[in-house]
Amino acid sequence: MTTVINADQSRREQKKTVVRERIIARAIDLFSRRGIADVTVDQIAEAADVGKGTIYNYFETKEDIVVAFMVELERRVQAKLKTLTRSRQPLDAILAGFILHQFQMKQRYHQFVRILLGQMFLRTEEFLPYVAEMQKAIDPPLENLLRSLQQRGAIRSDVHLPELLKVFKTIQLGLTALWAIEGPSFRKTEPTVKLEMMLFCKGLGVAT
Fold this sequence. Notes:
Order of helices and strands: HHHHHHHHHH
CATH topology of the largest domain: Tetracycline Repressor, domain 2
CATH class of the largest domain: Mainly Alpha
Strand content: under 5%
Helix content: over 70%
């Protein structure tokens, strides 16, 4: 009897996961084509083939869908951090490699990222709580990478990691904006990332 109940619960959870993923996928497609502000929850529900109430069972607002998507995407990107912590490349190559890997993973969603950045700049106060939610997923793994690099001597021991993280993320945001504006084939982005990271690491007093 317990096995049957567990199997039923497992099927229900799988169904919920499928529905949630479909809602996110359809919403991101709509956002990419029309912009976040111009898409309604009704339109998302129609595209996902679910009732409007079902959307609210999973997400309080359409912006929460954006957060869920970006958090999942960042988690996939940051799986790369585990390999980077073991890399013996120069510091600038490690950090440039991380940023370029991030762009590669997001290339499929380039148009959406471009729209999201525009919305963040135009509706800064409104988007701040959602950005804060995204940072909860982004910051800890990235700070762990910087800490591991500092512990092995790639970053000076007197550098304050929380401040370093802020500076790195600021540069990363600027490079992401450049990547979003340039678009395919992103030929200018890669050399710019490498140059920025070389200068950034020299600022840390690290030989590259």
